[in-house]
Specification:
alpha/beta
């Protein structure tokens, strides 16, 4: 991997200071499907109410050019928790369990446990389907009420129920949006459910209860907030903040795909039917309003969590990391969903607030990846190093946000297409060899594909050098294993190999 270009005079001062003092705790916050429509990123044209995330950014380092390793939940989260790109791990899509495919993988919470930490989690950290949060990697884990069972998301009978429990019948009001889209989860509305009864509230309450207790070990506390992932179900008070007549739609270009290769068009149009249905029903603005309301609801949960930390004994010795697994399209590139390699999907909110680094706002515009979180926390917390991580420590950028970084951020799609982003350009290389190149400074919407521009030949060459040279064989799908959700044991159907994921004796 490359090196940082700048020389940080005090490069190891922070690490030495941490090593000489009490080990810091880590509060690890994952917010699902959150694009750049948060206040501190300025991605939404109008007012978006995210006071708590904005406050966190004001006392930490906000990485405004941060990108996911994969544009869909399971591989993105597997990448964060392993420090490995999908091209290294083979976890390319949501149809994988990581544990039976990578039985020797030492995940981020496991590495903290090996270094004397309590590893405690709640909500959606890994992908939330049954089997992706095996007890063996946690000291304690509070699961989502819905769907984190043997049925996972494979059954439409259960899919419609969240944020209800999976034992309730489908509400007669479904779909609340008034539109039946490609999946039952694509819905939005106000539910007859108290805020304190919702899953995200209960997830955070588990974490604040943990923070209120005395602990004799440092801890790694992971809190996974499900909103603003679909369905966009929110209490009415959050929706009231976004009157439909005041909602801004994203700027879109008619025939935006005309200069996009066939592979990119296929990627964009896989969910076009949803966009067409939403437009035809004149529900585009209501959908955006409910997403924004879901963002604000998620922000309220971040506030609930930060308040719990502030009132605890651990406020002055806790590193806070907040990130999202990928963004979301609302019609850009004629797309309505995730799973793409353009800006609105790969660029994500990412904040690191460490007490040792200062309490004033810092901003970095250098390209960083979520796979950098693992090596960064190793260095910040003085843990033993892990071999063969794909990411780079961000400590140099935390100490000096103006430092230069010699590597771009790489995003890998399930089709094994690749996006490479530096501080100005985005280069996309499709599996068939076709290309896109965007000048993100002069063309922030990525409307003008300049891959054929000879003036930018050197830019393409430079960025293409970071495309993975080797590709891991895709992980086996879930149907390759027999899984017992009570024991967290997998059995390979062909070889008979048994992989244990249950609690250590």
């Amino acid at each position: 991997m490359g090196k940082y270009l700048s020389i940080i005079v005090f490069g190891f001062s922070l690490v030495a200071e941490v090593a000489a003092s009490k080990k810091p705790n880590v509060l690890f916050i994952a917010v699902d499907d959150l694009r750049d429509w948060v206040g501190f990123m300025g991605g939404y044209k109008g007012k978006v109410h995210t006071p708590h995330m904005d406050e966190l950014a004001s006392r930490g380092t906000a990485f405004l050019n941060a990108h996911t390793a994969a544009p869909v939940c399971c591989p993105s989260r597997a990448a964060v928790m392993s420090g490995l790109l999908p091209s290294t791990s083979g976890i390319y899509n949501n149809g994988h369990w990581w544990k039976p495919n990578l039985p020797k993988l030492v995940t981020l919470p496991e590495h903290f446990r090996r270094n004397g930490y309590l590893a405690v989690g709640a909500g959606k950290i890994f992908h939330h389907t049954a089997g992706n949060n095996p007890p063996v990697i946690w000291d304690e884990y509070h699961r989502l009420v819905f769907n984190d069972d043997a049925f996972s998301r494979s059954s439409g009978r259960y899919l419609t129920l969240y944020p209800y429990t999976n034992r309730k019948s489908v509400p007669s009001e479904f779909p609340y949006s008034g539109i039946r889209l490609y999946s039952p989860e694509v819905d939005w509305g106000v539910l007859p459910k108290k805020e304190k009864e919702m899953d995200d509230y209960q997830t955070v309450k588990f974490c604040t209860d943990f923070l209120a207790r005395k602990h004799h070990k440092p801890f790694f506390l992971a809190c996974g907030i499900f909103h603003p992932h679909l369905p966009w179900y929110v209490p009415k008070k959050y929706l009231d903040l976004y009157p439909v007549d005041q909602v801004y739609l994203p700027e879109v270009l008619k025939q935006d795909l005309k200069d996009v290769p066939a592979a990119g068009q296929k990627m964009a149009l896989r969910k076009k039917q949803d966009l067409e249905k939403v437009r035809a029903a004149k529900k585009w603005k209501p959908a955006v309003a409910h997403y924004l309301a879901s963002v604000t609801y998620a922000d309220a949960r971040v506030g609930q969590l930060l308040k719990g930390l502030a009132q605890s004994d651990y406020a002055k010795n806790t590193i806070i990391v907040l990130w999202s697994d990928h963004g979301w399209h609302f019609g850009e590139k004629e797309h309505w969903h995730k799973r793409t390699l353009w800006e609105v999907c790969t660029r994500v909110p990412f904040i690191v607030a460490a007490p040792e680094i200062g309490k004033s706002r810092q901003v970095s515009h250098q390209p960083v990846s979520l796979i950098d979180i693992y090596p960064t926390l190793i260095e910040l917390c003085g843990l033993t190093k892990r071999p063969r991580l794909d990411g780079l420590s961000l400590v140099p950028l935390l100490e000096n946000p103006r430092a230069l970084r010699g590597e771009p951020a790489v995003t890998v799609s399930e089709d094994r297409h690749v996006s490479v982003v530096d501080n100005r350009y985005r280069f996309i290389l499709y599996r068939d060899g076709s290309q896109e190149l965007y000048d993100r400074k002069d063309d922030p919407h990525e409307w003008n594909n300049r891959a054929a521009d000879l003036k930018l030949k050197e830019v393409k060459q430079r960025l293409s050098a970071f495309v993975p040279k080797k590709w891991a064989k895709p992980a086996l799908g879930k149907n390759a294993f027999q899984f017992n959700p009570q024991t967290y044991r997998w059995k390979h159907k062909e070889t008979g190999q048994v992989i244990e994921g249950g609690r250590e004796p």
